[in-house]
Amino acid sequence: MSFETISKRGLVILGCGRMGGAILQGLLSGGLPAHSVHVIDPHPSDWLKSTNVQLNGTLPDSPAVVLVAVKPQMMADALPQLEAMAKGDTLFLTVAAGITMAGYERMLGDQTRLVRAMPNTPAAIGRGVTAIVGNPNATPEDLETADALMQGVGQVVRLEAEDQMDAVIGVSGSGPAYVFHLIEAMAAAGEAEGLSADLALQLAKATVGGAGQLAEDSPETPATLRENVTSPGGTTAAALEVLMDPETGLRPLMRRAVAANIARNRELGK
Ligand SMILES: NC(=O)C1=CN([C@@H]2O[C@H](COP(=O)(O)OP(=O)(O)OC[C@H]3O[C@@H](n4cnc5c(N)ncnc54)[C@H](O)[C@@H]3O)[C@@H](O)[C@H]2O)C=CC1
Ligand SMILES: O=C(O)[C@@H]1CCC=N1
Fold it and tell me: Which domain, by its residues, includes 181?
């Protein structure tokens, strides 16, 4: 399905907060005409009001795509109003955590053409990474459409099975929050060692941003890049001894954090 078909038949966005807004921004700057977008959101942001999208108005009967971007807790209230569209020729593309294909099929009917997508907030600057997977009703063309829409905000990867989605949410969907916390923790350590708050934050942000870019761009593995910083017997080695402790280091801590994420995701799906 081309952008032309989407602009002709319309795109409905259910919930246009941080994530829906980031995706919409990517699509509008990619050339999707604003008048072809219909947003349902009881609390539209000022930015959303400043676009020329159709806000809380009449919806097309059979839009090309419905993008679902409400919180999982709102889903049961918000989604059933669109049930008729799921009986027709509309693709449902959802970015919500927690809710499984089976959950959507219970709300919309088991004929629904559905793609689950898990983006992350660097989408707001076109640097997101989104994993997608379709239900058995989703055609290869539907997956192409979802892929093309989500490429508006960064890279897209395809999953082999829905059960990989939990780990994706645990790693990349929520992952930016872990990285932001790493920035906070590095800055706090710098401050505790006598740097001003501003300087410590500038150093931490630039280090995480630069190292992230280097890890993405370099042909070397992260392990080699780490070793390149580490002189034998030097200062980095002393810090890594703490961070790489098999019992108390970052690896077991991250393992626990991702497991907690997945457990919560499964609770939300109930
Ligand atoms: N923020 C993130 O990092 C990511 C979020 N997601 C998923 O995106 C979805 C949205 O999350 P955010 O954008 O962060 O939340 P948000 O709170 O920024 O946006 C949700 C929007 O839904 C609107 N809304 C509330 N009730 C509604 C209703 N009955 N009908 C229509 N709209 C309604 C709210 O006014 C708000 O604008 C969630 O399901 C979340 O799991 C997925 C990946 C990453
Ligand atoms: O915290 C959440 O539930 C959502 C899902 C991925 C990122 N934020």
Answer: 175-268
Q: Which helix (H) or strand (E) holds 254?
A: helix 250-268
pLDDT of residue 30: 87
Contact 19, 69 (CB under 8 A): yes
- Tracing tokens 């009449």 back to the chain, one arrives at 58
Spatial separation of the C-alpha atoms in residues 133 and 89, rounded to whole Å: 19
Distance CA 108, CA 84 (A): 8
Q: How far is the CA of 97 from the centre of ligand 1 (A)?
A: 10
Is residue 72 marked as binding? yes
What CATH number does residue 156 fall under? 3.40.50.720
Assess if residue 167 is contained within a domain.
no
CB distance 116 to 67 below 8 Å: no
Domain boundary among 115, 139, 161: 161
31 and 126 share a domain? yes
Give 127-142 pLDDT, tens digit per residue: 999 999 999 999 999 9
Which residue's alpha carbon is at the smallest distance from atom 24 of ligand 1? Answer: 15
Q: Is residue 78 domain-resident?
A: yes
